[in-house]
Amino acid sequence: MSLQNIYILAIESSCDDTAAAVMHNGKVLSNIVASQKIHEEYGGVVPELASRAHQQNIVPVVDQALKKAEVNKSQLSAIAFTRGPGLMGSLLVGTSFAKSLAYGLGIPLIDVNHMQAHILAHFIEEDDFEKPPFPFLAMTISGGHTQIVKVKSYSEMDVIGETIDDAVGEAFDKSGKLLGLGYPAGPAIDKLAKLGNPKTFKFTKPKVSGLNFSFSGLKTAILYFIQKQVKANPNFIEENLNDICASIQYTIIGILIDKLKLASKETGIKHIAIGGGVSANTGIRQALRDGEHKFGWITYIPKFEYTTDNAAMIAIVGHLKYLDGAYAEQNVMASSRLKI
Ligand code: KG4
Ligand code: ZN
Fold first, then answer.
1. Ligand 1 atom 13, closest CA
2. Which of 80, 229, 256, 316 has the smallest set of CB atoms within 10 Å of its CB?
3. Cβ–Cβ under 8 Å, residues 147 and 154
4. CB-based burial of residue 224 (10 Å sphere; 0-12 exposed, 13-18 middle, 19+ buried)?
5. pLDDT tens-digit profile of 177-211?
């Protein structure tokens, strides 16, 4: 097949979203995500339920992705899939499906690292979106990860800082749970924060040296703060919800921006990209843009649909690896703790 006509079908099933995308020469033709509502009532992802839901969703989701793209299976150049990191049961569904389909069609199979994909989502061909030049810094912020990565090329990436406990998304989700905001709480906090004053309540930032992060202390501080205030006034949460959300979000953004400033100073790199579910946050997006005039950064902020888990980001890595001939063997194994 000519290199001018590369069609990739990508499958993402690392956590609680079943996603499939079709890409033509780096452009997204379809990007379908089936979010699993079942976890909402449990206040977090239940792994066993997630893998069962993936099994139910995967065929219709892939089917829909191909139909929307108006691409026939026989036109596909390769199948890309998320090998890890993620929940083992969930990863196994996508991995087995991708293997069988690639084998059946007699086309290459390409394994993708989910965290690299959050970063390489910036290389999806999109009008009006600049691609970062190498080397650049990428901060991946999601429900499972918080990392600062020095990206030297499509395949060479060094993690230069990461969380030593909770991920930033968990800080949002766990704070939201205390406030009765449901799961995942990041989007709700984002929305309410817009209506509140971020300077109303002060939470101490964790003291972690270097480029690493810690969010578990903040979660405990917020828990004690809420307990104390509710004891004094049982209506405290309802009466102050917007200000509480704005203050929590402000603190979290402060922690992230401080570390990015340090990373930029230490590496001398001013091109800064963000990725992962939390990069959908309006406050973080604004703080990053503000960094352009405050610190001379050149920033790269992904389109909303490429922030939370999606298969378009898996497809772009599939496309880049296809160009390199970097295929996987049929005996490739899912890996829940796969490193960048
Ligand atoms: O990347 P992602 O979809 O899944 C993981 O790989 O974890 O990220 C999900 C996380 C959740 O913690 C969710 O609360 C958070 O991203 N999130 C947000 C926003 N949208 C999603 N956090 C803050 N503000 C948002 N607008
Ligand atoms: Zn993710």
1. 186
2. 229
3. no
4. exposed
5. 999 998 899 999 999 999 999 999 999 999 999 99
Going by C-alpha positions, the residue among 179, 183, 159 that lies closest to residue 169 is 183
Q: Categorize the per-residue pLDDT at 41 as very low, low, confident or very high, splitting at 50, 70 and 90.
A: confident
Ligand 1 atom at minimum distance from 309 CA: 3
Measured from the Cα of 169, ligand 1's closest atom is 12
> For atom 7 of ligand 1, which residue has the closest CA?
143
**Any residues with CB less than 8 A from the CB of 2 and at least 6 apart, and which?**
none
Ligand nearest to the CA of residue 87, numbered in listed order: 1
Sheet strands side by side (includes 27-35): 27-35, 17-24, 7-12, 78-84, 109-113
Atom of ligand 1 nearest to the CA of 170: 12
Instruction: Name all residues whose Cβ lies below 6 A of ligand 1.
Output: 15, 142-144, 169, 172-173, 184-187, 190, 276-278, 280-281, 308-309
